[in-house]
C-alpha cells in the first residue's frame, strides 16, 4: 500500500518566479518525486502572492489560504507527509515554523523536502526550544491584550451598529470612509444557500457543502471554488 501524501507549493514574489521557483516548476518536482518514491499524491495546495500586494517575506503579514486549508484538511485526510520543494515554501521565520510544526505534530504528519532529503520536523533543533518558549509567552500576552483592549473596543462598536475594522464577514462589504457594513446581495445569496444546504442535509460535512456549492456554480470573491474552511467561516459569522 502506497504512503499517502499531499503537496504544497508557494510563490511569494515575482523574483522567485524568475529564480526557478514558479508554481508549475514546484508542482512538477513534487509529482516527479512522488512517482519516483512510490508515494500516493492526493492533492497539491497552492499559494501565490504575486498579485501586486505587499508581501512580508517573514510570512507574518499575509494570509495563505492554501496553507490554512491544507492544515485544516489534515484533521480528516489520512496522510503521512507534506511534500515541498524545500522548507522555505512552508516557512521562513522561526515563529511561523513553530506554529506550523505544532499543527503537523498534532496530526502526526511530517515534511518531505525534496531539496533537503534528511529533513524531519521531529529532528531535534535547539533553536525550536527557545522559540517555543517565546511563543508560549507571546500567546499569553496576546490573549490578555485582546481581552483587555481589542475585543472590548470592537464589541462596543459592533453593539452600536458600527464597523469595528478587520476582516469583513462574507456576505457583507465595507465602504471606504464609512463606519458601517452593508449587505452584498451576491454574497448574501451564497450564504443563504449554505444555510439551506445545512438544513436540508444536516449530516453533510463542510467539505460536502463546499462541493455542492461549487457544483451549483457558486464562487468565492476571487472567483475560485469554495473550500471547507470558507464554508466554516460563513457558519461562524452567521
From TrEMBL:
Gene3D superfamilies: Putative Large Serine Recombinase, Chain B, Domain 2 (3.90.1750.20), Resolvase, N-terminal catalytic domain (3.40.50.1390). The active site is at residue 12. Residues 169-238 form the Recombinase domain. SMART domains: Resolvase (SM00857). Keywords: DNA integration, DNA recombination, DNA-binding. It comes from the Bacteria. Residues 4-161 form the Resolvase/invertase-type recombinase catalytic domain. Transmembrane segments: none annotated. PANTHER family: DNA RECOMBINASE-RELATED, DNA-INVERTASE FROM LAMBDOID PROPHAGE. This is Recombinase family protein. It comes from Brevibacillus brevis.
